[in-house]
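To whoever is on call:

I kicked off a structure prediction for a single chain this morning and the downstream step that reads the tokens threw a length-mismatch warning. I double-checked the sequence; it's 511 residues and nothing unusual in it as far as I can see. Pasting both halves so you can look.
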Amino acid sequence: MSVKIVFDNHRSLYTNLDIIKGRAILSITKNETIAAITVKLEGDCKTRLTDEMDAPSTFNGMGRRAGGPDVIAETELHKILYKATTVFPTPDVLRASGSSVYTLPPGLHEFPFEFKLPFNNACADAQSTYISVAGLQVQTAGNTDRHVRKTLPPSLSVPHDLALIRYFVKATVQRPAFYKENFRTEATFQFFPIEPPRRPSPPPGPRSEVFARVQHAFAPTISTASPHTAKLPGLFRKPVAPKVEDPVSPPRPPQICIDCRLPDPAIIRCNVPLPLRILVTKLNDSPATLFLQLLQIELVAKSNVRAHHMSRDNFTTTIIVSKSNMRARLTEVNKSMQIDSGFWRDIPLPNSVAPSFDTCNISRAYELRIKVGLSYGAGDQVFPELSVQTLVMAVQVYSGIAPPEALLQAMASKVPPRPPPRPHTFLTALNLPPQSPASMPSSSLQQPGLQPHQTGQTHPEDPFPDDVPPSYEDAVADGLGPVDGPRGVYQQQQDDVGAGSAAYGAVGGKN
């Protein structure tokens, strides 16, 4: 007997609100007695960290470090998606027979199933499994009290087997005899969430921006021009009088300010070019000409991986633009210059970039690093000084899959739910009011290098407030259809996928 899963509407990329249809096909060569056939739609978020601090790398025969503390590995698994249905026996068969076991004849038997992908994860205490391993000693870890209920994260694997997020459909054939193993199979699929609903794009015109800014003053250039010295007389030549040339005096070195700007809020989208502006402004009256020599734009991903009391940050860098030896003259207009956006305008984010997300044990954040190398000169002459400035901007990465219009209308018509009562904390026990963001020091609320160009206020009639948007459950009706629009491409690195998948191994035994 064997069982497999076949998708009827297989996609290279699934997203929220998609309907997954398929069949569980059971192949039997002889009469088989079974109890039930269940199909589950599941999503796992697994992390594994090892405490190897201040320990040598040698091990003894018992699997422990020789001359040092034990290797402690913590594994944390959260079930972020779980839906189950029984495809056999059907309710009609169950009512007609009233039996708990059934005998199927030889042949192929197909059992259709259908699931709808939700918005938010379904992680809860009852659906979480945690394992902690210390050397060869297995200990059961206590349950964690941190559960995040947000939009489902994308399929992801962090290098070095630190974390893995995967989605799959699993079919289980349950057999009543305790000595017979249940048959299982699963089929994985790639998941990419839709973008969080937000305000429509403002009309053309001035709009607020966030920016990173740095200033620099070039050093004075020493003139290398000097009169030619006279040639000394030789045995067969006459002395030559020196020829004096007017030395070329270098211009006054400029003082500049470099701005990198993004529309507010700082959001970039997968498979879409950057909406970036880079401005250079002179701060003095120098007549020098500025030249762009180097430009590099990087997207740095920070994955915060947690497993119980352990935590680790993993950084990966994606290079979007890298150019050098450019010698591109900057055109000055009223002491202001804008670097040509054609250097990055037609380059979308690579399809291996996942959107920002936050789960119970993994979070992904991004920052944009822009390196600008400038020189100055007089006319076509470029002086040797090269100034390379690095600007950093914290950004959010969205998937590029726009939410359906019905969802936006539902969110606009819904009233945000009232926040739950405050939990009993040390402040409430002392009858002290909690510290609000307005009463906190301003320095703790500001991020270096990321400041709003203009500040705005959220109006009461705004259906999309910035601070507490309504949840998806309150905004979406059950009859909302799938996303009908472009989805782009999402491709994980094969090395990372293989490394992460190996951590799961085979599944056996009975459910």
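Update from on-call: the warning came from a stale cache, not from the record. Cleared it. Sanity check on the structure: Residues 53-67, 125-142, 422-470, 494-511 have pLDDT under 50 and may be disordered.
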